[in-house]
């Protein structure tokens, strides 16, 4: 069977890489790699090169989606992306398509696959991120999909609540846990040499994405983050660039200005890559920001996370995560807690709610045994029969 895997961002590819390698090595499956989004952009590191360097052949490129400066851009790009994915998938003719998560690039891919009658294998559904429009996109992709691989039992319950039959929903754990387990991380001296910096005490790894749901000001919120970090004048601060979401240019410009003002101690990288990012995370004192990696991967590294704002609100959280509102005083206080001896003493016993390694292998097993050509007609699964309602829908 031909299995198309779609990837649009560096973080997404990092999560999918082991699964892609397993599909590539499987005697029952043929891997097709479809690339779009920020992978194609120089300003985001042109990470398409990373996919090729990892040993994968690019079978199709969908350039209609790249980056969005506004919500209007997102709407336009999703529309053009549906056309681009339709052409790519019609040419590849896969037996199934694997879609991870909740980004708008994936919505375009799912829409095209749905109308082409290509079964969708959805990974990391059922989650909630109240501060991003990704939340609605994720649930929409769930309704397009035929097979669901979720990270935790709570997420299975939510997918079933959306009307998906329980036998199509499989708890496999989080791909981020696999990502850490398979990565040979660099030592402290090696990562300092690699990045040409010195990790002073304390040291922070910061990733901040715009909140795409609600009416908060990206500039004001990031200004509060920067102000809080300035409360630690001896700290080494390493920023990574945001995703290509609306408002990303505001974040990028503010980070460039902030790093310039604190040059020597503050650093900014466009795309660290999986090995350098996880290696750096392992050696810093605190991971700060609103990236999903702070919740999904950092607990496995026993690193404290200060999670800012509402972008990740609703996701399962380990005890290593400290939540803070986007106010300087709140962020500063949360970082102080993360640096305290009492809190750090608890990190050795942190359990990752996204499970143990093995998600990629479980997904491969499901792909291998699923006969996508004979899937039954999809129906809406009612959690329980309606009670106390009349035929016309009124109580």
Describe the structure using short key phrases.
globular; seven-stranded parallel sheet; single chain; 395 residues; 2 domains; Rossmann fold; 42% helix; 16 helices; alpha/beta; six-stranded parallel sheet
Notes on the protein architecture:
The chain is an alpha/beta fold and 395 residues long. The protein folds into 2 domains: 2-172 and 358-374, 3-Layer(aba) Sandwich (Rossmann fold), CATH 3.40.50; 185-349, 3-Layer(aba) Sandwich (Rossmann fold), CATH 3.40.50.2000. It is built from 16 helices and 13 strands. Mean pLDDT is 92; it is low at 387-395.
Task: Provide the gyration radius in Å.
Answer: 21 Å
Which band does the percent of strand residues land in?
15-25%
By CATH, the architecture of the largest domain is named 3-Layer(aba) Sandwich
Strand tally is 13
**Number of DSSP helical runs:** 16
> Helical proportion?
40-55%
What overall form do the CA principal axes indicate?
Answer: globular
Fold-level CATH name of the largest domain: Rossmann fold
* Major sheet summary line: 7 strands, parallel
Strand order of the largest sheet: 3-2-1-4-5-6-7
Low-confidence region ranges: 387-395
How far apart lie the N and C ends?
Answer: 48 Å
């Amino acid at each position: 069977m031909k299995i198309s895997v779609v990837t649009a961002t560096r973080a997404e590819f990092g999560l999918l890489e082991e699964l892609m390698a397993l599909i590539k090595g499987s005697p029952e499956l043929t891997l097709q790699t479809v690339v779009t989004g920020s992978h194609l952009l120089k300003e985001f590191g042109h990470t398409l090169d990373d996919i090729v360097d990892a040993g994968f052949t690019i079978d199709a490129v969908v350039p209609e989606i790249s980056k969005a400066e506004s919500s209007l851009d997102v709407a336009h790009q999703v529309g053009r992306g549906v056309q681009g994915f339709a052409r790519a998938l019609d040419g590849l003719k896969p037996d199934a398509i694997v879609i991870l998560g909740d980004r708008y690039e994936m919505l375009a891919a799912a829409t095209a696959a749905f109308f082409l009658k290509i079964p969708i294998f959805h990974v990391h559904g059922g989650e909630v991120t109240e501060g991003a429009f990704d939340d609605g996109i994720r649930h929409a992709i769930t309704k397009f999909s035929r097979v669901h691989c979720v990270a935790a039992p709570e997420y299975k319950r939510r997918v079933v609540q959306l009307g998906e039959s329980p036998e199509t929903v499989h708890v496999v754990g989080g791909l981020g846990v696999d990502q850490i387990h398979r990565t040979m991380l660099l030592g402290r001296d090696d990562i300092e040499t690699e990045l040409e910096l010195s990790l002073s005490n304390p040291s922070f790894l910061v990733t901040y994405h715009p909140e795409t749901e609600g009416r908060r000001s990206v500039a004001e919120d990031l200004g509060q983050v920067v102000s809080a970090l300035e409360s630690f004048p001896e700290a080494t601060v390493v920023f990574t660039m945001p995703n290509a979401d609306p408002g990303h240019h505001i974040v990028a410009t503010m980070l460039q200005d902030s790093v310039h003002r604190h040059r020597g101690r503050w650093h900014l990288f466009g795309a660290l890559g999986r090995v350098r990012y996880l290696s750096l995370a392992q050696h810093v004192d605190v991971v700060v920001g609103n990236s999903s990696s702070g919740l999904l991967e950092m607990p496995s590294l026993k690193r404290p996370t200060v999670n800012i704002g509402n972008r990740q609100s609703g996701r399962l959280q380990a005890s290593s995560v400290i939540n803070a509102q986007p106010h300087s005083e709140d962020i500063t206080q949360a970082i102080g807690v993360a640096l305290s001896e009492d809190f750090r003493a608890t990190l050795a016993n942190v359990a990752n709610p996204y499970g143990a390694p093995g998600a990629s292998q479980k997904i491969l097993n499901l792909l291998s045994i699923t006969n996508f050509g004979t899937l039954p007609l999809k129906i809406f699964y009612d959690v329980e029969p309606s009670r106390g309602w009349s035929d016309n829908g009124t109580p």
